[in-house]
TrEMBL record:
Belongs to the OSBP family. GO terms for biological process: intermembrane lipid transfer. The lineage of its organism: Eukaryota, Fungi, Dikarya, Ascomycota, Pezizomycotina. GO terms for molecular function: oxysterol binding. One of its GO terms (cellular component) is membrane. PROSITE patterns: OSBP (PS01013). InterPro entries: OSBP_sf, Oxysterol-bd, Oxysterol-bd_CS. Pfam families: Oxysterol_BP. This is Oxysterol binding protein. Coiled coil: none annotated. Gene3D superfamilies: 1.10.287.2720, 2.40.160.120, 3.30.70.3490, 6.10.250.1430. Residues 393-415 are annotated as: Disordered.
Amino acid sequence: MSSKKEPQSQVPPQSKGSWSSFLKSIASFNGDLSSLTAPPFILSTTSLTEYSAYWAEHPSVFVAPAKEADPEKRALLVLKWFLTTLHQQYCSRSEKLGSEKKPLNPFLGELFIGKWLASPNSDVGETTLISEQVSHHPPVTAYAIQNEKHGVELQGYNAQKASFSSTIQVKQIGHAQYTITPPGSSEKEKYVITLPSLHIESLIYGTPFVELEKSTKIASSTGYVAKIDYSGKGWLSGKKNTFTASLYKASEGEKKPLYIVEGQWSDTFTIKNARTKEVVDRWVVKENPTTPLTLAPLEQQDLWESRRAWADVANNIVKGDMDAVSGYKSRIENAQRELRRVEKAEGREWERRFFNRIDEKDDDPLFQQLTNTLDLSGQLETDKTGGIWRFDPSRAAGAQPPYHKVGNEGLGLTQ
Ligand SMILES: CC(C)CCC[C@@H](C)[C@H]1CC[C@H]2[C@@H]3CC=C4C[C@@H](O)CC[C@]4(C)[C@H]3CC[C@]12C
């Protein structure tokens, strides 16, 4: 008899049937995850626009590169910051809710706006977040995170391309750009960041969780490249969320690493100087609590802001009243359909609030330079993201609700 304990199904008894039909439907789906009907126990009350906040939940780590005078160490601090975001990006739902969940599919124009407040016992200052759904077909979320005090800006956009091959496989399309003005310099320094592919584990037991795949890169305008290799359950260590990252000069190549970072991004990792073999830094997830994002109280939020717009849907998911959930979802969907119909009739397009669609040739020269270092062809498939999306800071300065010209009636609300 085997002593190995088999995982037990965590699917609630009343959901067994709907879970197995959900599993069957994903085996033959068309690539659009939002179109799948999943049983209530796997539905999240959080919209995907909220996921943009994962990029800066440790604000002091987010701004640290802007304070470092040495370009090599700056590039290392950017790599460190990126690695510290992975736990929140890819593990936080599983840890908090017991499994990965199916997020709410944002509607076009949906906004998620908040800030990480300045704290009297740190020099970080305030960090602000703007996240906007810039496309619905295909779903694309754009975001900008700014810390004015340290002159740090992160912006990006992403879409997901899903496929099925023994489980849900997700390729992320899009990229992020981290920009700072280094100490004593008047010129901007830019880092272009690619996003990992992932797949879902443990689907049949009803406890889905994310595992990252392959590799991602960060290329800097100062000539450094960081490459991160994800190995899931490390084939040597057997530990989950294992990775190896190296920082090197683009001109020298991967074979001459300056720093090596190793460990588990969901737990502990260490940073070593590859030349001296000395451990120079260490990150322990548990010892670094996140800073919560502060949102306006619900009644002061704009109707287009995620929490407010989805409140009725979310409350009924919690209650398990699926008829009410689909009723409130249809209200949003019908109102969106009506907006699209009118736009089409008037021969115009929905106006994005904080982001512009740009032409590749009009993009920032620094970005264009970096796309030559990285192979970004897979990230710039504009047909899968509805274009290239760039933040327009002039439209964010002092922005207050109402954010969109269309008010209650555009949201299908009568009052
Ligand atoms: C849980 C199962 C049953 C349903 C499938 C849910 C899918 C839609 C979920 C599961 C994990 C999710 C991903 C988890 C983390 C991120 C990183 C974030 O920066 C962008 C969104 C992205 C890339 C999510 C996209 C949606 C996602 C792929």
